[in-house]
Amino acid sequence: MTPARIRVLLVALTAAVAATTASTANATSASVTPACGAASPGFARCFSLVRTDIDGGKGVRGPNAAGSTTATALPAGYGPADLDAAYNLPSSGGADQTVAVVDAGDDPKAEADLAVYRQTYGLPPCTTANGCFRKVNQRGQSAPLPVDRGWGVEISLDLDMVSAACPDCHILLVEGDDASVANLSQAVDTAVALGATEVSNSYGTAEGNGLQSYSPSYAHPGVAITVSSGDYGYGVPNWPADLTSVTAVGGTSLSRAGNARGWTEQAWGNPYGGAGSGCSAWIDKPAWQTDQNCPGRMVADVAAVADPLTGPAVYDSYGGYAGWLVIGGTSASAPYIAGVIALAGNPERYADASYFYGGTAGLNDVVGGTNAERVDCGGDYQCNGVTGYDGPTGNGSPNGLAAF
User: Which of 15, 159, 192, 323 has the most CB atoms less than 10 A away?
Assistant: First the structure.
C-alpha cells in the first residue's frame, strides 16, 4: 500500500472515530427498532429502522394543517425541501416517469397515508382517482390484494421517499404475496410489465446458493432498478444488491452544517446499524468496477440519507404506529435514489450501475464515517468513507442531476 493511500485511510479512520463518538452521544436518548425481523431461508427482510422515541401525532402538519393552531409545525425529520437542499435537486420534473416500489403484503392505508404526507409538504396529490397512484398484487391485479405481512411502515417509507425526490412522478405499488424471494421477484417483473421506468427494492437477504435462478427478474435493460445495500454494516453482501444489473444503494448520515453546501455527510454507522457493504463471493467483478481489494462485485454504488438518527419524516398510521415518524435504513435511500433517477428522466442508462463509475462530477464524495461497528475490516475502503469510491457510500450521494 502506498504512503499516500495509508494517509487517506488514517484520515478516514480518524474521522470515523470522531463521527462514531458524536453519533453515540446523539443517540443516548434515541430508540430504534427494525421494522422487519430476520428473514427465514428463501425470504427477504426489509431494511427500515424506525425511531420509536418520536411520536409526531396524526394528521396533516405545517402550513397546510387546515387552520389548526396545534399542528402548524412541520414534523421531526427531513422533509422534501430539506432533501432537495441537501442534494441540490430541483423540486419538479419526472412527470413522464413511473417509479414502482416492491414490497411484501398489503398496507390498506397506503394511499391515505401518502395523501397526508404529500399535503403536509405541499406536494401535488398522487391518488388512484387522478391516475398518479396505483396499487396491485404481484400478478398486476387490483384484487385480491395480499394479507398484511407487517411491512406497512416500510411501504409508507418507500412511497414517501419517492414522493420527496420526485413529486411529479407516477407511483406504482406492487405488493408481493409475502416476503419470499420468489414472490418479490415476480413482483419486480410485474412492475416492469406494467410500465415502470424505475423499480425500487428495499429488501434483501445474505447472498448464497439458490438465489441465482431469480436474478433475471432484476435485469431489465431500459428500466433502472435500485436495491438497498442493507442496514447491518460491513460483511456478507445482500442479494439482490450484489447483482451487477442493479444499482446498489448505500447509506449516509446527513446533518446541517455551516459550510458552503450547508450540509455534511458521512458513511452511516452507529450502534443502531450501518450501511451495508461487502465483497461478493458469488458475483464476478464487473469491468466497470476497479476497486483493488475486492475480487468480486463490491457493494454499494451510490448512496443517500439512511441513518435513523438523521432520518426523513414519514407518515404511517397503520399497524400500531403513531402517524408521524422518523425512519432510516437503506430502505430510505433506495427509493430516494430511484426518485432521483426518475427526476433526471434517463432510466435507460441503468442496465447496470456502470454509469455511476464513468464520472463523479455530479456526486458528493462522502468522506468520513464507518459501518464497521460490528466487525473490523482493517481500515479499508470497504467499510470506511474515504476519498473516492468506498463500500458504504459507493461513488457518493447526489449533487444535482448531472450524474443521473
Answer: 159
Angle of helix 152-165 relative to helix 80-87, nearest 10 degrees? Answer: 50
> Cα–Cα distances in Å, from 196 out to 163, 202, 287, 382?
15, 16, 28, 32
What's the confidence (pLDDT) of residue 378?
78
- CB-based burial, 129-142: b 16+ in 10 Å, e otherwise: eeebbbbbbbebee
Q: How many helices (H) and strands (E) does the chain have?
A: 6, 21
Q: How far apart are CA 316 and CA 289, in angstroms?
A: 38
Alpha carbon distance 214, 179 (integer Å): 14
pTM above 0.85, yes or no: yes
pLDDT beneath 50: ranges in the chain: 1-28
User: Which grid coordinates are listed for 310?
Assistant: 438523521
What's the length of the chain? 404
Alpha helices in 132-202 (DSSP H): 152-165, 181-193
